[in-house]
Amino acid sequence: MDTDKKLIIVEYAESGVAKLILNNPPLNLNSMEMTRQLGNALSELEADDSVRAVIITGSGEKAFCAGSDVKEFPRIMDNFVGKKLRRENEVFDSVETLSKPVIAAIEGIALGGGCELAMACDIRIMAENAKIGLPEINLGVFGGSGGLFRTPKLVGTSQAMELMFLGKFISAQEAERIGLVNHVSPAGESVQMAVSLAEKIACQPFEAIKAIKKGVRECIRLSHEEALELNFNLTDHVFNTDDCKEGVSAFLEKRKPKFK
After folding, report:
1. CA–CA separation, 170 and 162 (whole Å)
2. pLDDT of 145-190, one tens digit each?
C-alpha cells in the first residue's frame, strides 16, 4: 500500500468554495488508503471556517469513482466489515454530516462505492454522457456503504430495489428523472456547474445554511414531535445571528442584504 501517494487533492478558492478531487486515475477506485485520506481531508474542511461549500469530483474524464478496488478484496474477505466497510461508512457519513453543503460533480462513471459517495453528498450534478449505478449484485453482494439505505431515500423503495437487483447502469437523464441527481450538465461541464451553484450557496447566510442542512438531514430520522423541537432550536439559533438582523433590516429598508 502506497501511503505516500496523494489520493485526495483539495483546492481552495477565495469564494469560500473548496474542491475535493478523488485522485486515483483512471477510475479513481476507492481503495482503503483513499478512504483514509478522504476522512482526513473532510476533517480539515470541517475545521476550516473559510470554507462555505465543498465540491467532490474525480480526476480525469473517465470516472467520478468506479467503486472499490476489488483487488483488495481477497486479503480482507475474512473480516470485510472490520477491515474496510465500517471505516468507509464512517467516512461517507462524515460527507453527509459535514456542516458545509457538499456537491458531487460527476463525469464518466459513478459505480458502487462511487455512487454511494455521491449519494452522501447534498446535491448531485451529472454530465449528460455519464453513467451511474450499483452493480455490486454482480459480485454476489450489495452496496454496503449507503446503497441499502440512501438510495430509497432519494428514489423510493421500488426504484432502489430495481437498481440494486439488476445492477444496471443508468444514464444521467434517467438518474435525473428518478431523483437520483439534481441536474444534468453538458459533457465536461459538471464541475463548472457545481462551482457556480456552490458560489451562490457560499454567499448565503452561513448559520442558516448550516441549520438547513442539519435540520433536513436529521428530521428524516425523527418523530414529528422531535423534528418540531429541533426546528425550534435551530430557529432560536439563527434568529440570534447578525445575518438575521441584517436580513430583516434590509427587507424593511428595501435594500439588498449584506450578509457576513
Report:
1. 11
2. 999 999 999 999 999 999 999 999 999 999 999 999 999 999 999 9
Q: Give the span between the Cα atoms of 182 and 131, in whole angstroms.
A: 14
Q: Which three cell numbers stand for residue 19?
A: 474542491
Enzyme catalytic residues: 116, 136
Task: Verify that 218 and 194 share a domain, yes or no.
Answer: no
Task: Write out pLDDT tens, residues 24-47.
Answer: 999 999 999 999 999 999 999 999
* Sheet containing strand 8-12, strands side by side: 8-12, 17-22, 53-58, 102-106, 123-127, 183-185
What is the maximum alpha-carbon separation in the chain?
66
**Core vs surface per residue 149-184: b (16+ CB within 10 A) or e:** ebbbeebeeebbeebbeebebbebeebbeeebbbeb
- Same-domain status, 100 and 183: yes
> Can you give the residue range of the structural domain that contains 227?
206-252
The answer to whether the predicted template modeling score (pTM) of the entire model surpasses 0.90 is yes
Sign of the CA dihedral running 233, 235, 236, 242 = positive
156 in Cβ contact with 101 (< 8 Å): no
Residue 29 shares a structural domain with residue 147: yes
Q: Number of folded domains in the chain?
A: 2
Is 189 in the same domain as 210? no
DSSP for 143-188 reads -TTTHHHHHHHHH-HHHHHHHHHHT-EEEHHHHHHHTS-SEEE-TT
Of 187, 202, 217, the position where a domain reaches its end is: 202
